[in-house]
Design a protein that fits this description.
single chain, 247 residues, alpha/beta, 3-stranded antiparallel sheet, 9 strands, elongated
Length: 247
């Protein structure tokens, strides 16, 4: 075990409130392409901004629905990796010691919950869910067809329950994420570039409020010079050791 991992573990062991922020890096290890990398094959001629906006859906709902159906299938075939399992183990350890724990994720794949994490804040929604475009009614089931399915309550077209460009984050999710950053004394930032706002501000907010911030990323990010401990590697490589699963 490296000295940096040992130091991070010691800080975690003495924490009274833990917050975690995860980004695309942890899901990439489960074979899920990052948002922009997902534009391959038939979708390579598009830019994300051409597909992930309310305006794009209004202009061509079938095109947008089909792209998300393709992405949803990829997510459905993915399974949690060692990084997801380790974060679920850290949450259980926190719960056993009556330490507050909140996991905030920018990912929409639902793999944290699949691994057993319970206190999960999904900042950008969840691609496994759908809602209606006009009123936001949640819809559990829909019929697969050549057409975009419609809401059984109001008849409007269904869309993925994710945050598109130009849309605000869910207010309750953002409030929970900000509260976790302000009140934690240990903030773990995993597999995120810390450039996409407002999530990018969370570790800096935690620093301002006195937390020790641990960054885990294969490459340096804007957070690196400010982190209490910066660990170089992937979530699947390093998180098991931090969670004591690596013993």
């Amino acid at each position: 075990m490296t000295d940096d991992i040992q130091r991070a573990r010691e800080l975690l062991d003495h924490a009274t409130a833990v917050a975690v922020l995860t980004g695309a890096g942890i899901s990439a290890e489960s074979g899920i392409p990052t948002f922009r990398d997902a534009l391959t094959g038939l979708w390579a001629r598009f830019r994300p901004e051409e597909l992930a906006t309310p305006e794009a859906f209004e202009a061509n709902p079938k095109l947008v629905w089909d792209w998300y159906a393709w992405r949803r299938e990829a997510v459905a075939n993915a399974v949690p990796n060692a990084g997801h399992w380790a974060l679920a183990a850290i949450e259980r350890q926190c719960r056993d010691h009556q330490v507050d724990f909140t996991l905030v994720t920018q990912n929409v794949d639902g793999l944290h919950r699949a691994a057993g994490s319970q206190r999960v804040v999904e900042l950008h929604g969840n691609i496994r869910r759908v809602k209606c475009f006009d009123h936001g009614h949640a819809v559990d089931r829909w019929e697969a067809s050549e057409q975009v399915p419609t809401c059984p309550r109001c008849g409007s077209l269904l869309r993925p329950d994710v945050v598109w460009f130009g849309e605000s984050l869910p207010s309750d999710a953002l409030a929970a994420a900000l509260a976790a950053a302000r009140t934690c004394d240990f903030f773990l930032c995993v597999g995120t570039s810390t450039v996409v706002e407002p999530a990018a501000s969370l570790p800096f907010l935690a620093l301002q409020c006195g937390a020790r911030v641990i960054e885990l990323n294969p490459v340096p990010t804007p957070l690196t010079p400010h982190a209490t401990v910066s660990l170089r590697g992937t979530a699947a490589q390093l998180l098991p050791a931090l969670s004591r699963q690596g013993q």
